[in-house]
Design a protein that fits this description.
Helices cover about 35% and strands about 15% of the residues. With about 325 residues, it is an alpha/beta fold. The protein has 2 domains: about 10-225 and about 305-325, Alpha-Beta Barrel (TIM Barrel); about 235-290, no CATH class. The protein has an 8-stranded parallel β-sheet with strand order 1-8-7-6-5-4-3-2. Strands 9-10 form a two-stranded antiparallel ribbon. Helix 7 (about 195-205) links the parallel strand 7 and strand 8. Helix 1 packs parallel to helix 2 (about 60-75).
């Protein structure tokens, strides 16, 4: 229920849980997205995950065909429990040479939900709207939120402290409160949401959806190394370190993966570490060798199918709602 806010667009309604599976770089693919949508939450993937060699057909087209056909077949076989819609994440920064090609493909396939990152582009929003899509733009502060809406985004993903990858630095209490003083549209919250209880807390704060990423790394359908999945299950919030060393942008990473790569995860800002990293040698030169994760991974203890993870969160969410009603 959103008694104080505008009605949600149709593409964002009818979900089993108010939850979006966050697009995970190199990890989210058709298998995970299909499983998430069949389980009743919005599944998503970064368009840049669909890679092809030069001269080959666009892999993004192949992925969208596979996802669309799989979800259509599921809906025909299960009219009473249809799949949730899916989303594609577009990196709209000018450095993305594929952007407009990928936008054209997504528009042709009428992708229902578009998630844009690293800048707000009016022409991308317009293309999504012309194709009947809804645009959510991820932001780390209120200033960027206002810019995104001014440039035509329909909703926002507030990336707060504790999120995996390139996380924001602000408390979710502050970030959601500031955005909700002026914005009544669709709003998702990202940052250490790994349980139904955390999902309910996001809703209480004023978000419409929880934006859940790191727990899905440890699912059977995720395109992640088995060692990565195991490290997620074995780690907790204290194993997450924040650094801009690897990409130039502050992000949250698993300390054990940094140590495995030959660096001291607790001394990343030293001049010597930066020098060693830039020289290469045995040090990693690609950030994919360092594994990202958010602070909510303490709730993840085993690798399971995505449907099982969604069911667990749904059960915890229902239980938390019952308990909160007695407060």
């Amino acid at each position: 229920m959103r008694p104080d806010h505008l009605p949600l667009p149709a593409a964002l309604t009818g979900l089993r849980l108010p939850m979006i599976g966050a697009p995970l770089f190199l990890i989210s693919g058709p298998e995970l997205v299909i499983a998430q949508c069949k389980a009743g939450i919005i599944g998503s993937f970064p368009a840049l995950n669909a890679r092809e060699a030069e001269g080959e057909p666009a892999m993004l087209e192949t992925w969208l065909r596979r996802i669309t056909e799989a979800l259509d077949a599921h809906n025909q076989a299960n009219p009473d429990t249809p799949a949730a819609p899916f989303a594609v994440n577009q990196i709209v920064h000018r450095s993305n040479a594929r952007l407009m090609r990928d936008v054209e493909i997504c528009a042709r396939w009428k992708v229902p939900v578009w998630i844009t990152s690293l800048g707000a582009r009016e022409e991308v929003n317009a293309a999504a709207h012309d194709a009947g899509g809804v645009v959510l733009h991820d932001v780390i502060n209120n200033t960027f939120a206002r810019k995104a809406i001014a440039k035509g985004a329909d909703g926002l993903v507030a990336v707060a402290a504790g999120a995996g990858g390139h996380a924001g630095q602000q408390s979710p209490f502050a970030l959601i409160a500031e955005i909700r003083t002026w914005f009544d549209g669709p709003l998702a919250l990202s940052g250490a949401i790994a349980t139904g209880r955390a999902l309910l807390a996001a809703r209480v704060l004023g978000a419409d959806f929880g934006y859940v990423g790191s727990p899905f790394i440890a699912t059977e359908e995720a395109q992640a190394d088995a060692a990565y999945k195991a490290m997620i299950c074995e780690s907790g919030a204290e194993d997450i370190v924040t650094s801009a060393l690897f990409t130039g942008v502050s992000g949250n990473y698993l300390a054990p993966s940094i140590a495995k790569a030959g660096l001291d995860p607790h001394n990343l800002d030293s001049a010597q570490t930066r020098m060693d990293f830039s020289k290469g040698s045995s040090k990693p030169r690609n950030w994919k060798d360092i594994w990202g994760a958010g602070q909510g991974i303490g709730a993840v203890r085993d690798v399971v199918p995505a449907a099982t993870l969604v069911a667990r969160i749904a059960e915890d969410y229902a239980r938390a709602k019952q308990e909160s009603a007695a407060l």
